[in-house]
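Incident review: delayed structure delivery

Summary: a single-chain prediction request sat in the queue longer than the usual turnaround. Root cause was a stuck worker, restarted by the on-call engineer. No data loss occurred. The affected request and its eventual output are reproduced below so the record is complete for anyone auditing the incident later.

Affected input:
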Amino acid sequence: MKRLFFVLFTLCCTIAAQAAQYQQHNLQGNTLNIQTDSGQLSLTFYQSDVVEAFYQSEGVKQLPSFSISQQSQPQQLRLTESATALTLGSASLTVKINKAPLQLSYYYQGKLLLAEEQGYFQQQQRQQQPQQHGFRFALSDSEKLLGGGQRVLGMDRRGQKFPLYNKAHYGYSTESSQMYFSLPAVMSSNKYLLLFDNSAKGEADLGHTEPGIMQFSAEGGRSSYVVVAGDSYPALLNNYTALTGRQPLPARWTLGNYASRFGYRNEAETRAVVQKFRELKLPLDALVLDLYWFGPDIQGHMGNLDWDKNAFPQPEKMLADLKADGVNTILVTEPFVLTSSKRWQEAVAAGAIAPGLDGQPKTFDFYFGNTGLIDVFNPKAQDWFWQIYKGLSEQGVAGVWGDLGEPEVHPEDTVHAIGTANEVHNAYGHQWADMVYSGMRRDFPSQRPFIMMRAGSAGSQRFGMVPWTGDVERSWGGLKPQVELALSMGLFGFGYIHSDLGGFAGGEQFDKELYIRWLQYGVFQPVYRPHAQEHIAPEMVFHDSDTIETLRPWLNLRYQLLPYNYTLAYQNSLTGMPLMRPLFFSENSLADEQNAALMDEKNSYFWGDAFLVAPVTEPGVTSWPVQLPGGVWFDYFSGKRYAGNNRVEVQVTINTIPVLVKAGSFVPMAELVQSTQHYSSEKLTLHYYADPSVECAKGEMYEDDGKTPDAIANGQFELLNFYYLKQDGEQKFELRRSGDYAGKPDSRELTLVVHNQTATPKHISVDGRYIQLVPQQARFNRMQNVAWYDKASKQLKVKINWLADKQQILIR
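Output delivered after worker restart:
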C-alpha cells in the first residue's frame, strides 16, 4: 500500500528535490548576490531590521514587486565566509547562508528568528496544471501566526491552510477561509514578520499539512520573501510599513459620518437624505452613491461611468450644493465594462479591455451582464480609465469607491499587459488604487485623495486605500468577526479597515438591538459608514425616534473625539500603527509577550492608546466579559475603576457597551459640529484620567487645516503636547504647543477635566497665577480662568485661556 501511494504521488507531481548548491558570491552595497547551480539568490537589506531574499532560478519568469516601495538604505554590513557557510549581518539582523544545500537562517540580536526548511522550491503539477513555486520554513513548537489578510479563522492562523486569491464571500458571518482581501504575510509570536512578495494565485499552509512547516506557494509571480525583525510588535509594523509604504494622512472629513446605501436612485432622493440628517441635527460629512448614478437598473449599465441624466439631471449643481452643506460625495466605480454599456466601443478602441489568448478583447458573463475587464496593468487602459476619474473630480466628486476589484470574476485565460490573470490577480486592486492615487496627486495636487476599495495587496495602504470587510451578513453572526477582521488587516498597515455598519446582506426585518450595537461599535472603528441593501434602511434617520435618540450621543461622541481620532490618523501616517490595535500591543501587562489570551483576543481592542473597546455581539445581555491588560482602567460611562491583568464583567445597558479608558490617558475633545467643515479646536476639552498608580504621563494632539496634502512633510501643522507629573503631593500639568499652519487659532479656551480626583483641591494656579475654585457649575460655565470640583463625579474642571507656547497648571 505504501509503495502504491508513492507511485501515485510521483505521478501527480514532481518536486525539485535537490536544493540549490552555492557556487560564488559578490557583495555590492546592501545586496549580496549568490550564484548557485540553478540561478541566483539576492539578499538585500532595506533597513537594519529588514532583508529580502530573492531567488531567480533559470527559466522562471519574474514579475516586479508590488509590495516594496522603499529604496534600500545604506547599511554597514558584515560578511564572513567559512568552508560551509556565509554570514551576512547588519547591526541587529544576521543571515546565515548554508552552502550545500543552500539554506538560510535568520538571527535577531543573536537569537534564531526563522529558518528555511527546504527554502525555495518548484513543483510541477499533474498534466497541464500550472507550475507552483514557493518557500518552506520551519516553525517552532509554540509559535503563533497572525495574518493572511481577511479571514474568519481566529487571530492565530497556525494550523490553517487557505487560498491566496482575492475572492468575494457574499453574506459571510462567523467563518470564512477565503475573502475579498488576502495578504501573503504573517506576524509571528516569535517577533518576526514574513512577507511572501508575490501577486499570483497561491496558497498558504501554516502548519496544516505538516505541523512544523510553513509553506507559501503560487502559480508564478515573484519568487521573493522579506523578513522583518524588531524588538516589539509595533516595531515590526513600523519597519514593515517603512518598507511597503505608509498610509497618507486622509482629509479630516474621512473621520465623519457617511450616508450610504445600495442605493440612492436619483437626485431628489439624494438631496432628501442629506436634508433629513440636517433636520434631525445628526452630523454628516459624506454621501456615497452606488451604481444607480450611471443607470436605472442593477444589471445592464455597468461601465457607463457617466451620470444618468434622467435620474441626476444637474449633477454638478448637486455636487456643489452638497459640498456647500459640508457633504462630500463619493461615487462607486467598477473595473468592468459591459458590452451593453455606452462606453464599450470607446473602451475597445482605446485598448482598455484586457484581451484573451486570441488577442481580442476578452468578454464573459457575470451577474451584471456580458462584460470585459479593464486592464489596469496596461498604460493605455490606465490613461483611458483615469480620464473618466479626472472628469468626475473636476465636476466636484470628492472620493472614489472602487468595488468588485478582486476582480470578482477573473477568467484564467485573460492576458494582462504583464502576465496572465492568475499571475497578477492579487495585485489588480492594488494597481487600480495606484492609478487613481497617482492621478489625483498629479492632477489635483491640493486635494487629499479618498480611495475606498474592496481588494488590494500588501502595500496598497500607501495609495491611501480605505478597505472594508465586504458584503457581511446583516446578523449577529456578521457582527461577531468584525474586530478579528480589522485587527488582522491592521497588523499589516491597513489602518482604515472598517465594516458596513449594521451589516449589508439579507435580513428579513429590522433588528433594532443588532443595529444599535453595530453602530455603537462603529464609533470606535476608523470609518463610520452604515451601508446595506435598501429594504432595511442603513441610515439612522429613517428609524424610530427611540433608535435615533439611543444612537445620537454615540454619533455626537464620534464628532467630539475628532481631535483624538485625527491624532490617531497622524500617528498611523508616521509609523503604520493602526487606529484599532490588538491587546497584545500593550506595554504594561504582566508577561504580555507570552500571554496567549491577549494574542488570541478577537473580541476587544485598543482604540489608540487611551481606550479599550469590547463590542457587544449577542442580544439581550446585561453584562459583557472584558479581558483587561495591565494598568488601571475606568469605565467611560460610569467611572468605575478596574485593576488590569484581569478578566471582568462590565455591566451594560442598551445605551452602553464596554468602553474603558486607561489611567494616565489624555483625551482631547472638541465642540460638537454638524460637519467637519465647521470643525474648530479653538475650544478644547482635555480629559485626563488620574490614578495613584500613575505618577507621570504624556499625550499629544495633532492639528492642521484638515485638507492640505503633505502637511506633515511640509511642516504645515501644530503639535499640542500634554504632560502630567505627580510629586510631593502636587499635580503638575504642562501644556506645550509648537508648529504653524494656515488657520491655526491664536489662542484656545481649554477646559482641563481631571477624572478620579478624589478630594477638593486646596490651591490651583496657572503659571503661578491663582485660579478661583467656584462652588457652582453655572458660575464655572460663564466665567473664564476658573475651576470647579464636582464631588459626585469626582471630576475637577479647570478652564483657562491657552495663549503661550508653554503653560503650566499646578494643583494641590
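Verification: Residues 1-17 have pLDDT under 50 and may be disordered.
Action items: add queue-age alerting; document worker restart procedure.
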